[in-house]
Design a protein that fits this description.
With 414 residues, the chain is α+β, with helices and mostly antiparallel strands. The chain is built from six helices and 23 strands. A hairpin with a 4-residue loop joins strand 3 and strand 4.
Length: 414
């Protein structure tokens, strides 16, 4: 194959990387309705009865402003802003997303208390009473769970932005071992905040494929997987530029704050999952000095020559398009008792190849060897003498019979 690589000189691949972050596709509605669905039991003392709320899409929502009144039974609200990392942490690790004590009503009470306690300590709502935080009776052992959730929320950090990078270790495409494709180096995207990615190719010649490192054609890959781009040799012109688009969708859970139109009512918060679409493009430009065409050699018939004694062996060779091709003169064979009948353009050994013809398209040449016909002749030498002896005996007997007959006839005449 070294000869094949040598003929494909002048191959240059320019790689240009660009990244596009599609604006976040937020699942949080701009406006919604908050419904009050009842009142929580006060699990610390008996003085802390708090309302329970759900959004119109059935998400649990929590109050945020201690000194303000509850929203009405049904209240229209508008999206105000995103909550901070601590608020998001409490919602993610509270009711209904995580089990805290194993009792849904108690877990909901703990989550609401943790939100107010956290907001109180960070100066984002009125101070929570010391009675609640220290002295009020705690017959269910609720307070330590609240404190733990608040302390962890204070140390929470905002989720890092999702990332997508595409690494191209070698910008030079190389010829595949079968001579059919120009193949990129292994391309290894790196992801954060996503578990898979997709690859799409645009502006590519017909027959261009994306494969995994084992050669399987596919377009969706797991994070950590590498892929290859293969461009058919026959489809390349002088310069071919293709775009390889790598994309992924990441999901981020965020807390959102909703505000009633009447500011005397409490704000409420709930969780939504946002999707980010990341796309990165690799532009590969393959510049070839001359287009290539390939010749396949196929031996037909029952006689299969020893490849070590035949040049060329059945297979494939590729050349610059337009090359004056002299195949017949290039053939030598040392097949014992065989004669090569030449190369033909058709499998039925018609269409004799004429040396010097220019190669302008891929083609297959069919050849065959004539090793003659062996005729098995019986060995009759040993039988021949017996035949001669037999004939001699017959002649002698016939002669004796004639003599006897003649003598009898002469005696009768006397």
């Amino acid at each position: 194959m070294k000869k094949l690589y040598n003929v494909f000189v002048g191959l240059l691949v320019a790689v240009i990387l660009s990244i596009t972050l599609v604006p976040t596709i937020s699942a949080a509605p701009k406006t919604t309705t908050i419904n009050r669905e009842g009142v929580m039991v006060s699990y610390i003392s008996t003085n802390f009865d708090w309302a329970k709320f759900r959004t119109a899409d059935n998400k649990v929502a929590y109050c945020m402003d201690l000194t303000k009144k509850w929203p009405e039974k049904t209240t229209n609200v508008s999206l105000a802003k995103e909550g901070d990392a601590g608020l998001t942490y409490i919602l993610q690790n509270g009711y209904p997303y995580k089990t805290i004590k194993g009792n849904g009503e108690q877990d909901r009470f703990i989550t609401q208390a943790a939100i107010w306690w956290y907001l109180s300590d960070t100066g984002k709502t009125a101070k929570l009473s010391s009675e609640f935080t220290t002295t009020a009776a705690d017959p269910y052992g609720i307070r330590p769970y609240i404190q733990k959730l608040v302390n962890e929320a204070k140390n929470a950090k905002a989720s890092s932005n999702a990332t997508l990078n595409v690494n191209v270790s070698n910008s030079n495409m190389s010829l595949s071992s079968d001579g059919d494709y120009f193949v990129s180096s292994e391309i290894a995207p790196t992801l954060t905040g996503a578990t898979s990615y997709k690859v799409a190719v645009s502006g590519a010649p017909k027959g261009t494929v994306v494969t995994d490192t084992k050669g399987a054609t596919k377009n969706t890959f797991n994070a950590g997987d590498k892929f290859l781009v293969k461009v058919p040799v026959n489809a390349l012109g002088q310069t071919t530029t293709i775009k390889v688009n790598v994309s992924t969708t990441t999901s981020t859970v965020k807390s959102y704050i909703y505000q009633p139109s009447d500011s005397s009512y409490q704000r409420l918060t709930t969780l939504y999952t946002d999707n980010n679409e990341l796309t990165k493009t690799v532009n590969l430009t393959a510049k070839v000095d001359k287009p290539k065409v390939c010749v396949d050699y196929v031996i037909v018939g029952d006689v299969k020559p020893d490849p070590s004694l035949t040049d060329p062996t059945p297979g494939r060779n590729c050349f610059d398009k337009g090359t004056s091709y002299n195949q017949e003169k290039g053939l030598t064979t040392r097949q014992e008792n065989c004669k090569f009948n030449g190369w033909y353009t058709k499998e039925d050994l018609t269409g004799k190849w004429i040396d010097g013809t220019a190669l302008n398209n891929n083609m297959t040449l069919y050849g065959a060897w004539d090793c003659g016909t062996v005729v098995n002749v019986p060995n009759t030498a040993s039988k021949l003498s017996l035949v001669i002896v037999g004939l001699g005996v017959v002649v002698i007997i016939a002669g004796v019979a004639i003599i006897i007959y003649r003598d009898k006839k002469m005696n009768a005449n006397k």
